[in-house]
Design a protein that fits this description.
Rossmann fold; 14% strand; single chain; 4-stranded parallel sheet; 41% helix; 2 domains
Length: 367
């Protein structure tokens, strides 16, 4: 488990079903949200191999057999899946898959793992090994993936884009149930170390530092704008490369705690995102703090940003286009109440209520 949108959704699922255990491949309490400490976490044997814990991408080819051997026992099992969890095979009962995206490493491997020097950085040994293994095992893994999807009784998708992908890849129609903003705006706020004196009004980017997040586009767009600053929150294989090349206007703070993220959202001018997202979570987080967004016109952002009402779009991950969208945002006069109302449309109560209804329906069918 890492710190990200999928992990926040898993926490929300534990609120909906507090006695249910979580089955997962890896769990490191220091690298994910502290709320998981009160959850019954059951890990695979991979979690006991320190090399794999440090470089989980090496384990990608092992995930299929590992999850296929997971045997949860419940009347209804929910698989929160971005690639492997739907491969679990419950001993009994029915399976509901909550799909964040069909596996990027199987169907969008260049975007997920990067192309090395073409992406402006040298891929790690683990990324190169994962790419080699997936090239060799890809056809088998895609067959496994589709067969696993076909065993589920019900699919639920996090966005319109994901629902279309589920139908395209698996031939399955999925209900769309967007998750809520993962970060509650009410709570303690603490400045990240080194940013205590930064002036309010900086831009904020919240993203794992992976090739498909296009954080380099965001940093270049801000670099070209005199006098404006950017704070980048997130960890990943590109962190040191980007940090070493960052201009004085850009601050990379790595992973942060929720109190630090609240502090950053509260003092930011708005959110910047150039990533290929299946669900546009961070604009909802920004909106819950009354902050607008400038985002790529793609995927999940189309569900969570209302153009010219809660943010602006740009059509391609290009610094010039992003900068132009930032200029347009400054002319709109977006109201804080409009942004707060947008975030409220994606409430946690709505998500939990519908998820419980889905499980109740499946319990009836299970007899």
């Amino acid at each position: 488990m890492q710190k990200g949108g999928a992990e926040r959704v898993a926490l929300l699922m534990t609120e909906a079903f507090p006695s249910a255990p979580i089955y997962t491949s890896f769990y490191d309490a220091e690298k994910t949200y502290p709320e998981f400490s009160s959850v019954d976490i059951r890990t695979s044997w991979l979690d006991r191999v320190s090399t794999l814990r440090r470089n989980f991408r090496i384990a990608l080819p092992l995930m299929a057999p590992v999850f296929s051997r997971m045997r949860p026992s419940a009347a209804v099992t929910i698989c929160s899946s971005a690639g492997w969890a739907h491969g679990a095979r419950p001993r009994n009962g029915r399976t509901v898959v909550y799909c964040h995206a069909p596996a990027r490493w199987l169907y969008q491997s260049d975007r997920y793992l990067g192309r090395g020097s073409e992406d402006g950085y040298t891929p790690s040994a683990s990324a190169r090994l994962a790419r080699w293994a997936l090239a060799l095992l890809g056809p088998h893994l895609r067959r496994w993936d589709r067969a696993s999807a076909g065993r589920a009784q019900r699919y639920v998708a996090n966005s319109t884009l994901t629902a279309k992908a589920v139908e395209s890849v698996y031939g399955i129609k999925a209900e769309v149930l967007p998750p809520p903003p993962g970060l509650e705006p009410d709570g303690p706020e603490t400045p990240p170390v080194g940013l205590e004196q930064i002036e309010p009004g900086f831009w904020l980017c919240v993203a794992r530092l992976l090739p498909y997040k296009n954080v380099d586009v965001v940093t270049e767009a801000v670099r070209r704008r005199r006098g404006e600053k950017l704070v980048v929150v997130g960890d990943g294989p590109q962190l040191e490369y980007m940090r070493a090349r960052a201009s004085d206007e850009v601050h990379f703070v790595g992973a942060v705690h929720d109190d630090e993220l609240r502090w950053l959202y509260r003092r930011s001018r708005g959110l910047l995102a150039a990533s290929y997202e299946d669900f546009g979570l961070t604009p909802l987080e920004a909106a819950s703090f009354g902050k607008p967004s400038v985002v790529l016109r793609w995927g999940g952002f189309l569900d969570t940003v209302d153009e010219d009402l809660t943010g602006t779009f740009f059509d391609h991950p290009d610094p010039t286009l992003m900068s132009e969208a930032m200029d347009r945002l400054s002319t709109l006069g977006i109201s804080e109440q409009t942004l707060l109302s947008q975030a409220e449309k994606f409430s946690a109560d709505r998500f939990v209520k519908r998820l419980r209804e889905v499980v109740a329906d499946e319990l009836v069918l299970a007899g």
